[in-house]
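Input/output pair, single chain:
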Amino acid sequence: MTGRARLVVIGGDAGGMSAAAQARRIRDADSLDVVVLEQGQDTSFSACGIPYWIGGLVGARSDLVARTPAEHEQRGITVHTGTRAEAIDLEAHRVTAADGRTFDYDTLLIATGGRPTRPPIPGLDAPGVYGVHRLDDGQAIRAALDDLPTDRTPKAVVMGGGYIGLEMAEVLQARGLDVSVVLADPLPMGLLDADMGERVCAGMRAMGLTVHTDQAVREVLTGPDGRACGVRTDEGTHDADIVVLGLGMGPEARLAEAAGLGIGVTGGIDVDATMRSRTHPDVFAAGDCVQTHHRITGEPVHVALGTHANKQGRVAGSVIAGRPARFAGVLGTAITKVGPLEIGRTGLCTTQAEAAGFDFRSDVVEATTRAGYYPGAEEIAVKLVTEAASGRLLGGQVVGGLGAGKRIDVIATAVWAGLTADELAGSDLSYAPPFSPTYDAVAVAARVVSRAERG
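Output:
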């Protein structure tokens, strides 16, 4: 890129703003204009924090905003809020906004994010049904909770048992609601193996949540006022004063597809490791709208996580500004909690390993998060998936009490680095009674695998 050029970014959250900020850090305002179009009023906000704001653990909406439009402007990035990109003309290098304004570009970065899954269920668009995607969604749910009846215990139905579903079930219960989680799947947390998902389901029921499995919602019921008052499944009906959607997220790539950009098999924008479109070299994309690749299998995947969005945006911003960079793929590492139960996963579960054609084994170890004699020791289950012939770690899962969840990062690091179970078992992990037994549960699980392989 030579001379003065213009970068236009569509989308002002993680992927878009990390790209804009990185490009601006590398290239000064005399050589590169950076313009961001954001359809909402907020930039650089934490969607992952919305459930905790709803639950009162985060004090204010502004606490979830890492950097405001004004702060970006101070750093030399022009931000147009309330500006929805409606069309992209790839030949003319032009973006047209819904209000008719046009923005010419030399390089375009698309960061339109994810689109919440909304199956064609009658009543799903009724008042009283809420998604959890943007800060305005959180504001609407908070307002709805403030208006719930006080002469009885209000009821909530959460549709879906993934990360958002579990987190919303927890915070709604903490707000005093009687919460039912309704799943089309046999268990919550479908990215876990069944034996680990059963532990999650048991933990949810132990904390007082009602979990209905294998019950796809056929209809959202509405009352005389038109508002949602429950859901109907093939097994019956479940009353609700509020219905919350936690059905997952797909790529929001409709704008890119309409423009003629290449779309991958996952439905995300098809990009290479530099985040450049494979079909149009002047276009980049980052975040939940793109298709990426799995680090172990090399297969195309779509994983909607803020960690990836920020890394991808930084890669794109670097390349756009002339500095080499590449995105190294994903393992799908994730962590969440529901009540006292912490849940983590990384890499391949057994069904994914089988689908990828690996000859693998899996092992589960039960231990404690601290030395057994130390107060507060909690149960933890660690599951490792390894390649049978080599012992190479393919994935892992963790379910347990306080202190269990972040152990998934040790496993993720080992999987990322291509370590074997034997190498992980021999690694130098920390020990003190308040934090782990002499042999941490992760090390014990790795040792069990390595012994079995030698045997």
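The chain has twelve helices and 26 strands. The longest strand covers residues 360-368.
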